[in-house]
Amino acid sequence: MNHIRVIYLAAVLLVAALSTHPAHAAHPFLACDYNGGKVCQVSAEGKVEWEFQCKNPQDCWRLPNGNYLFCFVSGALEVTPDKKTVWEYKAPEKVEVHACQPLPNGRVMIVEGGTSRIIEVDRTGKVAKEIKLNTAASVQLHNQFRGTRKTKSGHYLVCFKGEGKIVELDGEGKILHELKVPGDPHEVVLLPNGNKLITCGDGHKVMEVDRHDQTVWELNENDLPGNPLRLMAGCQRLPNGNTVLCNYLGHGHIGEQSQVLEVTRAKKVVWQFNDHAHFKTINQIQLLDVPGNVVKGQILR
Q1: How many Cβ atoms from other residues are within 10 Å of residue 93's Cβ?
Q2: Does a structural domain hold residue 270?
Q3: Which residue from 236, 237, 259, 285 has the least number of CB within 10 angstroms?
Q4: What is the pTM of this model?
């Protein structure tokens, strides 16, 4: 019996050690921790190398000049590695900011819930362009929008979270196309082949659709043994065809499983990251060792 107790105790200690030790990250990355209230840069070894506190961050970029651009509930900032603010946008009261993107002309694209608009803000912090977004009256401010991207063509792709759809607008705000998706979409990425990669939030699903809205790849809630899809948030398609996903563990799942996954098209997990000691709910990511210039109109993360 003593031997059994010793073995049991050793097993408990091993599980505890594994649960508190961060997994190897495989890639250096920048990430938002929504409930943790911070934006962090993490090394390939899993060490937090840089951290900036802000409330409910949603989107983040490391720029070619080494600065960090990110948005949070009440605005957006560009800060230097030593945390000096070089650009700032303050949103109006009773507004939530849920996406940002650096543009080639130096502006920053931002989407706001409450004012229901896409704006492009210049380097002085002034709104240089505004696109009004029409939302259903029943959708609360917090649920209006999530991921939004401006493409090389000058169009905007917007996740209408509360209405469960992806909307494409031209440069003047005219609706070109709408696509209903399961759940509440949190991210849409236009791929080089013209397909769209979409995360479906609490729809517990990730999908890739072609130009004709046909699903050409999907990942469903229980496709990854041991890693059920929770709220699917940020994502990134890698040059090798794999997909990196943020498995947002809010809504009762904090600390339960991996926070970031890299998955092949055959639905095999290549690597996973979990550091519950430092992160609560990772909801956006940018891998820092993937080729591509983030300031070009289309995201090339």
Answers
A1: 7
A2: yes
A3: 237
A4: 0.89
